[in-house]
Amino acid sequence: MATIAAPAVERENYLNTDFRVRSWLLTTDHKRIGILYLLSITAMFFVGGFAATMIRLELLTPAGDLMSSDTYNKMFTIHGIVMVFFFLIPSIPATLGNFLVPMMIGARDLAFPKINLASWYMYITGAGLMMYVVLTGGVDTGWTFYVPFSSTYSNTHVIAAVVAIFIAGFSSIFTGFNFIVTIHRMRAPGMTWSRLPLFIWSHYATSVIMVLGTPVVAIALTLVALERAFHMGIFDPRLGGDPLLFQHLFWFYSHPAVYIMILPSMAVVSEVVSTFSRKRVFGYAAVALASIAIAVLGFLVWAHHMFVAGISAYAALVFSLLSYFVAVPSAIKVFNWMATMYKGSVSLATPMLYAMGFIGLFTMGGMTGLYLAALGIDVHVHDTYFVIAHFHYIMVGGAVMGYLAGIHFWWPKISGRMYPEAWGKIAAATIFIGFNLTFFPQFVLGYLGMPRRYHAYPPEFQVLNVMSTAGASILAVGYVLPLIYLLWSLRYGEVAPDNPWAATGLEWRTPSPPPTENFPETPVVTWEAYDYSSVAEVPVAR
Amino acid sequence: MAEHVVSRKTYIVVWIALMALMVLTAGLSRIDLGEWSTVVAMAIAVIKALLVILFFMHVRYEDQKITWVVVIAGFFWLGILLALSMTDYLSRGYLGVAGH
Ligand SMILES: [Cu+2]
For residue B86, what is the nearest residue in chain A, using CA coordinates? Predict the structure, then answer.
């Protein structure tokens, strides 16, 4: 099959089938819903990014001079809530996952297309309410909503913020069970469990966490609202409650939530590393089962956030030990990706640059997580910038890098256009440099004892903070670049062939962009996952 | 997979049982049972939940193993939440609290 020039009359696809706004707002096409989510979470990313900018500007100088401490509290709270609940949690599953899960298993759509649309409306309702909170005075509890501050003392919009997250939680649950049912029941003939792309295994594991974890945080936050509004005695000791109960319930979800963010990125990295090494993923079964192991073990470690909160020393020992266990499946993945690249035919296209960035930065984030799981070290660095640096290496260095790898990798399929490769590489390098300059100094700051969540700090910390703010400016440029050139490519980009990377997934064996029904006829799978001989005849675009 | 048809009578009987249990909960809340009040209230709540799950959610008529896997997983995860939280609450006297 030779590369076919763009046909004079455009083929009918999911994008050009109907241009009316109504056809988008009432669509049940998983691909269009993925696009709706893509637009919404991008908007929320820039809201969260604005708050981050204000934080970094305030920390440019030791004195709290740009804004009051109360405003600063609201800024980091908005940054945390928006980035965690309205960007990272839905980032890959609701966009790429929505688009790709049915395509990769050879299905026409998700099992429950209307619930999929409902999930987006839930998200929009939650996000809209959150924006109302932001615009009418904000909330200052930190994204963690710790009691008794949130339930008794804060004078900001705690209840509205909690309701917004509660509603958005439903969108997550809807997405999760939709994926689970789809993966169980809608695989094409021949698509056995052992032939599933690792993207699917990771999304399956993610969905399990979404379905089993989200209700717990929803209830925990509801209880905060009930105590605040009606003085029900749940967390306040004066009313017979227990303040640590909130932290137990909150982290039961919010630690696994980190895996909701990172597992889908791992899903992308498995596909990208294999495709750009032209090799089957080393140890397919181990990588697949590592996803499930992470989903299960991730639920057994939550109290590592509470070592200095007053939990029993015995419980601290148990949770410290269990936290170490999660490192095992994560390490299996990292080593297997490296073994996949070893002696592979590696090409450094933009998605591969992001994937390699992911592997390095995720490893640093994971290893510093082990520092924090160690009881003695945690007492020293708890609530310092060391923790901030650690989880940004996981969530930004890991999750966001994986997200960008995926957006670039599947951009030809989603949009039907190629992104400009040179600009892609420049942006990837800018983000990598900006990221490290922003967050590496924060490890040092934290180790030296700079606490998180203060708008002023001793003058000796200024040099490292200036480095961090400088890095954040570079990072911001790195994030705006893809926004510009991806939009540019929609009109001026090279027309994408069906399979520009000569990848093996079913999504590459159908036109770019795909027709509404995904495949002209139901595919029958006769090859194993990542069998590059099954696409040998397809030329690589570059 | 044939949809199991449940008779209207079954639904009505279960609904009456749920209403009766609700009245029982409300009534018992007015009597001081001391330590037992929580136990009794929780026991009634569990029975109500079981009725809803088994009859209204059709789990009782489901012969697909995967349904049972989902139901059991849900309760297993609830078990994780309770059991690991209890490693904290039940062991507060064992080794003292860090830093004190
Ligand atoms: Cu954690």
Answer: A315
Q: Which of A253, A312, A325, A378 best tests the B interface by mutation, with the highest count of B CBs <10 A?
A: A312
Chain B residues within 8 angstroms (CB to CB) of chain A:
66, 73-74, 77, 80-81, 84-85, 87-89, 91-99
Q: Whats the size of chain B, residue-wise?
A: 100
Tokens of residue A452, six digits: 């998180």
* Count of beta carbons in the 10 Å neighbourhood of residue A23: 12
Q: Would residue B2 count as lying in a domain? A: no
CA-based Rg of chain A, rounded to a whole angstrom?
A: 23
Residue A299 in contact with partner chain B when CB distance is under 8 A:
yes
Q: Looking at beta carbons, which residues of chain A come within 8 Å of B74?
A: 212
Is residue B96 domain-resident?
no
Q: Where do we find the tokens 């000791």?
A: A237
- DSSP-based three-state secondary structure for A495: strand
Q: What is the sign, positive or negative, of the torsion defined by CA atoms of A223, A304, A292, A254?
A: positive
Residues with Cβ within 8 Å of residue A123, at least 6 apart in sequence: A37, A40, A86, A90, A94, A168, A171
Give dist(CA B42, CA B48) in Å, integer.
10
- Give the span between the Cα atoms of A412 and A424, in whole angstroms: 13
Element (H, E) at A431: helix A421-448
| Strand partners for A451 | A384
**Contacts A249 to B, Cβ<8 Å:** 81
Flag whether B99 is in a domain: no
CA distance A62 to A450: 11
Name the burial class of residue A4, with classes exposed (0-12), middle (13-18) and buried (19+) by CB atoms within 10 angstroms of its CB: exposed
In the block, tokens 């397919």 appear at A284
Residue A384 has what DSSP assignment? B
Q: Please judge whether B98 and A300 are an interchain contact, meaning their C-beta atoms are less than 8 angstroms apart.
A: no
Contacts of A248 in chain B (CB under 8 A): 81, 85, 88
What is the ipTM, given to two decimal places? Answer: 0.86
If we measure between CA atoms, which residue out of A335, A337, A382, A377 comes closest to residue A355? A337
- Using the structure block, give the residue that is written with the tokens 């930065």: A361
Distance A305 CA to ligand 1 centre (A): 6
In a domain, B98, yes or no: no
> CB pairs below 8 Å between A and B: how many?
57
- Model confidence pLDDT, tens digit, residues A144-185: 999 999 999 999 999 999 999 999 999 999 999 999 999 999
**SS3 for A527?**
coil
Q: What is the DSSP string of A442-491?
A: HHHHHHHTPBSS-S---GGGHHHHHHHHHHHHHHHHHHHHHHHHHHHHHH
Q: What fold is seen in the domain A20-534?
A: Cytochrome C Oxidase; Chain A (1.20.210)
Q: Which two tokens stand for residue A83?
A: 């980035």
Q: Which range of residues forms the domain containing residue B69?
A: 8-90
Q: For chain A, which residues make up each domain, given as ranges?
A: 20-534
Torsion of CA A352, A358, A363, A366, to 10 degrees: -150
- β-strand partners of A312: B97
pLDDT in tens, A255-268: 999 999 999 999 99
Residue A493's region, left for phi above 0, alpha for psi from -120 to 50, else beta, is beta
Q: What single-letter DSSP state applies at residue A7?
A: P
Would an 8 Å CB–CB cutoff place A377 in contact with chain B? no
Query: What pTM was estimated for this model as a whole?
Result: 0.92
At B56, is the pLDDT very low, low, confident or very high (cuts 50, 70, 90)?
confident
